[in-house]
Amino acid sequence: MIDRLNIEIIAYHGWGYDQFCWQNWENVLPPTWKFQRFDRGYFDRPCAPKFTSSTATKIIFAHSFGLHFCPQDQLEQANCLILFSSFLQFHPQSDRLRKRSIQILDRMIEQFQTQPETVLENFYAKSCYPAIHKTSVSSNFNYSLLLEDLQQLGVSTIDPIHLEKIPNILILVGEDDRVISPTQLQQLHKELSFSEYHSIKNSGHALPFTHQQECWSLAQQYLQRSNSIKAKIAIEFGRSPVTYHQQATLQKLYADRLFSLLDDRSIPAGKILEIGCGTGFLTQKLVDRFGDRSILITDLSSEMLNFCQQNLDKTRLKASIEFRQLDGESLNSNEQYALIAAGFVVQWFQSIDSIQRLIDRLEPNGLLLVSYPSCESFPEWRSICQKLDLPFTVNPLPDSQLLAQFGGVYRTETIATSFASAADFFRSMKAIGAGFSTTGKQLTRSQMKRLIQAWDAQTGEIEVSHHIVYGVIERSR
């Protein structure tokens, strides 16, 4: 149940509104969730809340122009973005529609300078339509800020690349919106091809305030599905551990390279924990080197865990070993470990703050061993998608410098592998579970056919580059 989750929400209002437009949402959100409201300062003191928890799932609500008020660093922290009648740029791209939109906004700016109350009244009526706007305009407002933002409305743009790292984006729009054109609302979904889009009947631009229950129902369903991603990942990786083990040649190489980081390091006394054992490439090395210590081996997939347990050579094992199915992002015990190993796991984490949670589980001078494919992987795939104007559907991958922010020491390596065809590459991804989409981004059958044909036509063999990060983080005393 999502009401049991540790969730923080920051809600951003659009032009002409304030934080109190979100007030009724507190009646529908679970009481355990932390709900903070941004205020631009049009009618009262400005308020710019920040996320405070390193472990909570972070959600941003943004209505209309409110997305443009959200700081970039906050967007980068978000696990989920819910957009209500929002846009990357206010004016449509089509010349005809853009010209008309500019004229309307210019008239609005001109009138605001002499009749601001009238402009606000008309805007609220238009924004709420087809609902009736009932509240009166406050006579106490920040005229210069409202005018400044109204002028900024026509020129402010957001590059969709700044939103690509947010794993979950839900777009809710009003079917009868009289502020933003339907083409603009649909363009947002097109620009964010991995997003989910819903149009709510008999609602307009102010839908999160006039149709709160409908919005919450869709958001709740979306969050429930998003929360089930980990279960889907477990199912995907558990489909065939035998096939995975046979196909995962690179995974064995990555395990060798990662483990070599311990060659010139000592670790304190204490237990060993592995997050995401898979079929056991790294597990075997841990058992061979630290067989005299208590070891806990974990994975999301019970099938992977069973395969690892059954095929592990325990010849050098002298102490206890436990196999447990669990999510490495949700360690509930306060147990401390001398070494935590997470090979090819963190790219599946929903929050990079989970790395800090693992560090907090280390003994003083304990080590966190991490490897992952970075966002610089698959440049060939990205390039062919750009040429064909197709969505690049790879799951969001961490930055190659991610570990630096946790004080980690790391190195990178680019490994190129060859395939007889593009279809063979995608089949190999699926065989090792990496074909599962955490964002919902998928090509249609015809798009995939175009991609494969164009890629195959470029060269005799398909070469795909993996950019791998290997790192170690030491917890200070």
Walk me through this protein's architecture:
With 477 residues, this protein is α/β, with parallel strands linked by helices. The chain is built from 16 helices and 13 strands. The strands form two sheets. It has a seven-stranded mixed beta sheet, sandwiched between helices. Strands 2-1-3-4-5-6 form a six-stranded parallel beta sheet, sandwiched between helices. Strand 3 (57-63), helix 1 and strand 4 (80-84) form a beta-alpha-beta unit. The protein is globular and about 85 Å long.
Task: List strands and helices in order, with pairings.
Blueprint: E1 7-12, E2 34-37, E3 57-63, H1 72-77, E4 80-84, H2 95-112, H3 116-128, H4 143-153, E5 168-174, H5 182-191, E6 196-200, H6 207-210, H7 212-227, H8 229-237, H9 241-247, H10 249-259, E7 272-274, H11 281-290, E8 295-299, H12 302-311, E9 321-325, E10 337-343, H13 353-360, E11 362-373, H14 379-388, E12 409-419, H15 422-431, H16 445-458, E13 462-474
Parallel strand pairs: 1-2, 1-3, 3-4, 4-5, 5-6, 7-8, 7-10, 8-9, 10-11
Antiparallel strand pairs: 11-13, 12-13
Helix pairs in contact: 10-11, 14-16
Beta-strand residue fraction: 15-25%
- Separation of the first and last Cα atoms: 38 Å
Question: With helices defined by DSSP (H or I, 4 residues minimum), what is the helix count?
Answer: 16
Any idea what the radius of gyration is? 25 Å
Approximate shape? globular
Question: How does the major sheet shape up?
Answer: 7 strands, mixed
What's the helix-strand series? EEEHEHHHEHEHHHHHEHEHEEHEHEHHE
Which structural category fits the helices and strands? alpha/beta
